[in-house]
Amino acid sequence: MQKRLFVLLFPLMFLNCFQTDSVLDKNCKTFRLDPSDLNYVKERIVAADPEYIPAFNALLADADAALSCPDLTIINKSIVPPSGDKHDFMSYGPYWWPDPEKPDGLPFIRRDGEVNPASIDSRSDAPTLNKLINTVETLALAAFFSDKDVYAEKASHLLRVFFLDDSTRMNPHLEFGQAIPGRVTGRGIGIIGTRNLMNCIDAICILKTTPAWTAKDDTGMQAWFKDYLDWLINSEKGKDEHYYFNNHGTWWDVQAVSMALYTGQDSLAIAILEDAKECRIAKHIEPDGGQPHELDRTKSYSYSVMNLRGMFELASMGDKVGVDLWNYSQDGHSMRKAMDYLLRPLNGEPWEFEQLGGIEHYIDTNAEGLFLLLRRSANAWDAPYYEQMTGKLKLNKEMRTRLLFPLKTSMPEQLD
Hints:
Layout: H1 2-17, H2 35-46, H3 53-66, E1 90-92, E2 96-97, E3 109-110, H4 126-146, H5 149-164, E4 176-179, H6 197-207, H7 215-234, H8 236-242, H9 247-262, H10 266-284, H11 292-295, H12 300-320, E5 329-330, E6 333-334, H13 335-342, H14 359-365, H15 367-380, H16 384-389, H17 401-404
Parallel strand pairs: 1-4
Antiparallel strand pairs: 2-3, 5-6
């Protein structure tokens, strides 16, 4: 009886905890996410909709844990970049290993698809940056969905430490990204290591609706991203990455567009998005949907998913400025064809390309990433079929993606 009473009162408890006027309005410009989607999900959480409550509770648990996160900065690393300045980001190429034939292991040799732990542990700044982005995003979303200022205050503090405070800030460039010991001190392809900064930008846009994030903070962050975008466009490494032929080029576009939009350079963002039609979609996707530059990798399915996800991010940002990438097609080259191509293993068809670890293992362990593509496909093309395909994945109700991309299309009872 007591449990039933709690269930009945649950919606009322939520209504009393939320400020009903705390919504993202037309002045809140998130670029990856849709403010109306976030507002809708918040309404459903207030109504205790079981579709969203498990994911909301999981988000709050993560946010509560994040409140004890120590200050994050790259200046505490044990290695010193070639510049001598620990404020400079430094990372190592993930697939490069010491040469067992050489006493000192130098120069490193490449083993495609096999990740060297040095690229993902404390010897690299990449884990610190990724933790910062993930933590800030968690806290910002929790602040919005729960209306608890403590989350916004923590997120704002972490951002100031990492990007704005003179003593701890990261310098806005990636000259020493994906270094290869014995070969190079940095490479343009290291820029892909900051691809999730777009999530950080949307988190900042959400924080702007709270008292914790000030106009001074936003001015400082816009200046940081303007400087980083200038480096992306004009540095030799930035230019190398811009013209890279596979997912690296796609994710350069994603970063540049998100930073251009955040810093008020819409015309630049539109130019990059328009260019992506031919240079990314038409050149990266074959008429049958295959992505040849990804299919020749040892993790062909992983990289095909990764590249298409980047295109989806571009398409979402394109929606904000009137550039339609979802429906762009040149002689059959289109994102929808690429999405259908990735459905082959889910439909029991063989995957004829190399995938280290096996295609089934990848699908099982990356179900949320595939769910993200399928949900966004269902919404973008008003195609329930893609949503129904999510039933073939091992999913759980606590996935955060459910909060960020609610279903917009109606579902038929069964697959066509």
